[in-house]
Specification:
By secondary structure, the protein is mostly helical. 37% of the residues lie in helices and 8% in strands. It has a domain at 42-141: 3-Layer(aba) Sandwich (Alpha/beta knot), CATH 3.40.1280.10. It has helices at residues 8-11, 14-17, 20-31, 46-51, 77-80, 104-112, 127-141, and strands at 64-68, 92-95, 116-118. Helix 5 (77-80) links the parallel strand 1 and strand 2. The chain is globular, with a radius of gyration of 16 Å.
């Protein structure tokens, strides 16, 4: 997806047009002994991805929107996950930026669309590592089985 600082080669990769991404999802599910394939969507720009989200005024009110950002986030991801004992978490959108991070206009668009910026700590992680770490923290924070 094209963002302010993204390498355009990723957005034009045949990974999406050839369906190769699905092969990777199937291999990951098989390795995890899971029959559920994650929902995967792809858009050409951050603006078009944000446009697919329901309006902020749409219930459920507990729908959480978090974006990972090491530059302007003031709290750790684990601190931004709603406490499942005090609030029912009906859904979450977790936005991870490109290797070079979100640009100023990307951050403004995310904030305008109800996202809270959070970080995974002081070190910059590769996207594939950040995805795994963020999902593990999110899952643990939800106390899911």
């Amino acid at each position: 997806m094209a963002t302010e600082r993204a390498d355009t080669n990723y957005a034009t990769s045949t990974l999406w047009t050839s369906g190769e991404w699905r092969r990777h999802c199937l291999a990951g599910a098989a390795q995890a002994f899971d029959t559920r394939i994650p929902e995967v969507t792809w858009t050409h720009s951050l603006a078009s991805a944000l446009a697919t989200l329901p309006p902020l005024s749409t219930p459920p009110a507990a729908f959480t929107r978090l974006a990972l950002d090491n530059y302007e986030a003031t709290a750790a991801l684990r601190a931004e996950i709603p406490n499942p004992k005090s609030q029912i978490l009906n859904g979450m959108v977790l936005a991870l930026g490109p290797e070079r991070g979100w640009g100023p206009s990307d951050r403004a668009a995310l904030r305008q669309n109800g996202f809270t910026l959070a970080h995974l700590g002081p070190r910059i992680l590769r996207v594939e590592t950040a995805v795994v770490a963020a999902l593990a923290i999110t899952r643990a924070g939800q106390n899911s089985p």
